[in-house]
Amino acid sequence: MIHVSDKYLIQIVHPQVDKAMALAHVARRYNVIRQNIMAIGDAPNDVGMLRFAGLGVAMGNAWEVTRSAADVVVPSNDEDGVMFALHEHVLDRI
Asked: What is the CATH superfamily name and number for domain 18-93?
C-alpha cells in the first residue's frame, strides 16, 4: 500500500500493516484500553489510528480527510498543537 503523507513524501507498507494495527498491538501489550488512548496525526496514513484511539486528535494543518476522522482538531504543528493537545486532554485531567 502506498500512502502520500505530504507533497514530497510517500510511504510504502504491506497492505495489512498500518498505524491502527500497531497502536492496537502496543495497547494489548501494555494492557491499555482504547478509551485511554490519545492519538495525534496530520496525514491520511493517520486516519485509522485516529479512529482506533479513544481520542483522535488532528493537527490544525492536517489534511481534510484526517481532520474529518478526528474527534478534535488542535492548533497546527507551528502553533504547538501537540503541546496544546497534551495539556487540554491529558495533563489537565490528571
From this structure: HAD superfamily/HAD-like (3.40.50.1000)
